[in-house]
Automatic annotation (TrEMBL):
Pfam families: BPD_transp_1 (PF00528), BPD_transp_1_N (PF19300)
Transmembrane segments: 21-41, 112-133, 145-170, 208-225, 266-292, 312-338
Bilayer topology term: Multi-pass membrane protein
Record protein name field: Peptide ABC transporter
Keyword Transport attached: yes
UniProt keyword terms in alphabetical order: Cell membrane, Membrane, Transmembrane, Transmembrane helix, Transport
UniProt KW Transmembrane helix keyword: yes
Organism of provenance: Candidatus Terraquivivens tikiterensis
InterPro entries hit by this protein: BPD_transp_1_N (IPR045621), MetI-like (IPR000515), MetI-like_sf (IPR035906)
Subcellular localization: Cell membrane
GO terms for biological process, alphabetical: transmembrane transport
UniProt xrefs under Gene3D superfamilies: MetI-like
Length: 347
């Protein structure tokens, strides 16, 4: 019995397991809050679902089917039971299961988030390192001005600017949609670039990449500017530490010191911000998805809000919470790998 308890204790003390349990508890609490808010919003969900002209007896039967006449904790029990079965109710926007809508629209947003993350991380490392390795230089001043502008301008404004310049003036990139007219890709994963590669359609793959550039840049520029400033500050602080000065006094090239010895501890303070910015894309991308007519989950969520689609809103919020939770776990694991002090501290 004691040995079994020790085994359970060692499993619980495992970082991944502990954070996964805490993440599940957070999602459960989020579901309770969202469900309660959806139920206390003014308006009858049954009447909203069936319309103002539906007969009262039909509305009453629908209300009984949704257990709306029961106490709220009983409603939550039935809703949570359906949730574990993959059922989130019928959407008033599409009149389908919300889980079906999420399965259809989520891959487009995930694909966009993936390319935004690539641009964001690459731009942050390049701008932050160049600016932080030469503080006070002309290059540092120019990059700091760029980061100020990037932080101040919202993502949807960047989208309009990029769309106007590169789609309508220059005509290099497409303005809307995920693929050009006449190009189709069989749906396998819902990620157009992945599906195009899986089917050997390289023309569609290049076309999908071309459509991803402008919305990805619009979403990445603001966060990239903020993260580059954080990385620059950390770089400036670290290159003035004793161990860096000692390396410089031994004649080790500056670029090697900056990229090998100063960048790694500087990135540790930037990774949590990068993770949160990437996770927040599902909530912040709706205006960009509307501007570029991108059929993603964020656009579906804003449509559900405008139509007071409670089931759709709950589904989108839960999906956003799940992405936040998974991203936080990944960020914690990356920090544990990069910074040995965290591993030793946990031990």
């Amino acid at each position: 019995m004691k040995s079994r308890f020790n085994v359970l204790k060692s499993v619980y003390e495992n970082t991944v397991f502990r954070r996964a349990v805490l993440s599940l508890l957070s999602l459960l609490g989020l579901s309770l809050i969202i469900f309660t808010l959806a139920r206390i919003v003014p308006g009858d969900p049954a009447r909203m679902a069936l319309g103002p002209r539906a007969p009262e007896e039909i509305v009453q039967k629908y209300r009984e089917m949704l257990h709306l006449n029961e106490p709220i904790y009983v409603q939550y029990y039935y809703w949570l039971t359906n949730l574990f079965q993959g059922k989130l109710g019928i959407s008033l926007t599409s009149f389908r299961e919300v889980s079906v809508d999420i399965a259809e629209f989520l891959p487009a947003t995930l694909e966009l988030m993936l390319f935004v993350a690539i641009i964001q991380i690459a731009g942050t490392l390049i701008l932050g390192t160049l600016s932080g390795s030469k503080p006070g230089s002309i290059l540092d001043g120019a990059l700091r001005v760029f980061t100020y502008v990037g932080i101040c301008v919202p993502a949807f404004v960047w989208g309009l600017i990029l769309q106007f310049i590169f789609s309508y003036v220059v005509g290099v990139f497409p303005a809307t949609e995920r693929l050009s007219p006449g190009i189709t890709v069989p749906r396998i994963t819902g990620l157009v670039t992945v599906d195009a590669l899986a089917t050997g359609n390289f023309r569609a793959f290049v076309d999908a990449l071309w459509h991803l550039i402008l919305p990805s840049l619009a979403l990445a520029l603001g966060a990239m500017a903020q993260e580059a400033r954080i990385l620059r500050s950390a770089m400036v602080e670290n290159i003035n530490k004793d161990y860096v000065l000692t390396l410089l006094s031994h004649g080790i090239p500056g670029y090697r010191i900056y990229f090998k010895y100063a960048l790694k501890p500087s990135v540790a303070s930037t990774i949590p911000v990068i993770g949160l910015d990437i996770a927040s894309l599902i909530a912040n991308a709706f205006m960009v998805e509307v501007i570029f007519n991108w059929p993603g989950i964020s656009k579906f969520g804003i449509t559900a809000m405008l139509k007071k689609d409670l089931n759709g809103i709950v589904g989108v919020v839960l999906m956003a919470g799940l992405i936040y939770t998974v991203t936080n776990v990944i960020v914690d694991l990356i920090l544990t790998i990069i910074d040995p002090r965290l591993r030793y501290g946990e031990k």
